[in-house]
Amino acid sequence: MQARISNPAVVIPEAMQPVLDLLKAVRTGKVPSATLELVHLRASQINGCSYCVVAGTQSARKAGETEERLAAVAAWREAPYFTDAERAALALTEAATRLADRSDPVPDDVWNAAAEHYDEKQLASLTLMIGVTNMFNRFNATTRQVAGSGW
Fold first, then answer.
1. Fewer CB within 10 Å of terminal CB in the chain, N or C?
2. Which residue segments constitute the domains of the chain, with CATH numbers given?
């Protein structure tokens, strides 16, 4: 396998620092790192971004995630490993990643479930993480970045 081009944020280096700054800001929202890692991994799975799935799994392991939980993220609804708050974040991730799949992309029940567990700043953090992940997924899938290759 070979990438079509280098990652666009590397080709245009002025793009990388603002993205990294945004990711740094996301982490100030007080959402547990493990939850942010799960959100990143789930969105990347949905989008079929092998680069981000591999990188996200590695990052989650470094953050202390277990193999059981990582293996079960794709089937989180049926797995006993996730808290109610994590489930709400994963449901929000799926809805916000699959915007075109329904007429009401993020239904009130999904949003309200997340709002039961996260305050406004945390919801902003989750929403930004989902958005940044989807952006990276689109860069990497479009340019066919090779999983495990680094930039």
1. N
2. 28-137 (1.20.1290.10)
